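Slide 14.
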Amino acid sequence: MNRHRGSRAVTFALCAIWFVVTIFPFYWTFVTSFKPPTAVNGGPTYLPFIDFEPTVKAYVDAWSGSRGDFFTPFLNSTLIGISATVLAVLLGSMAAYALVRFQFRVRLLAGAAFAAIGIGGFLLFQELGLSRAQAMGVSFLLALPTSVLLNGLRLPGPVLGNNDVVFWFVSQRMFPPIVTAFALYLLYSELGKEGLKALDTYWGMTLCYTSFSLPIVVWLMRDFFQALPVEIEEAALVDDVPRLRIFFEIVLPMARPGLIATSMITLGFVWNEFLFALLLTTSNWQTLPIILSGQNSYRGDEWWAISVAAMVSITPMLVLAFFLARLMRSGLALGAIK
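Slide 15: predicted structure.
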């Protein structure tokens, strides 16, 4: 008994130490945002009203625009983050559900034909005088139906299944982000030459982050859908309920905890993403990470102001995570009762 109590005490002490280590950076940023310049430059101060007299001047300066516009990037991050999260979770959930409930057979030669027609058609149409964007669009419209038709034939060679498709989705996150970001920049530039502006636009950033988030959504939601009982869906099919209605009215409500958890992770990725926003925006649709990165060079090492910028970026995600976590727990409890 004494040994058991001793091990519990050691475990509790280690968890407490780890909690202090993880929470201290947030506490230090929060406290520093209320410090006057003298409390920051005059040595370490830890406790407000004891070590220093707190002030909200740094917050007033931030929202007044003296250190740059914070409201517009905050609004941009909110609109782009929510839109991309909703699209990615919706499309990714559909793909994940299909990969769980249906069997796919993708012939490797059909995939090779798609690549050959796409690349070859792009080069051919460019030689015929089409622009890069036009050649890309026409070659894609030819390659996609051709590969689908070929996939229905009994071609020789390997046949890929559902697990291979899932691995292909996940493998998209294995590439260095700069490769994808640079390719998107070139694509958006070519679309701009055709009169379809994509750089530094709401829809361009939303589609970028949607495609960036789809692999993780498919991977996570696939595991949630696999844990759902299939008998309820089979009973609905016996009653001639359409598959689409089953998905939206039966499957998604049962998978609510998974949807919330996946949405939190996806929104966190989009909210904190820096590289794509750096390359694909210039002024109109810059997000909070871009503004944060420029704070140190805007007026020097004013750590109280930099802490305010960090708090503006951190707080919405903390509040959202708090409320969504409550919804997720209630969803798990409801599922247990059912």
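Speaker note: The first helix runs from residue 2 to 32.
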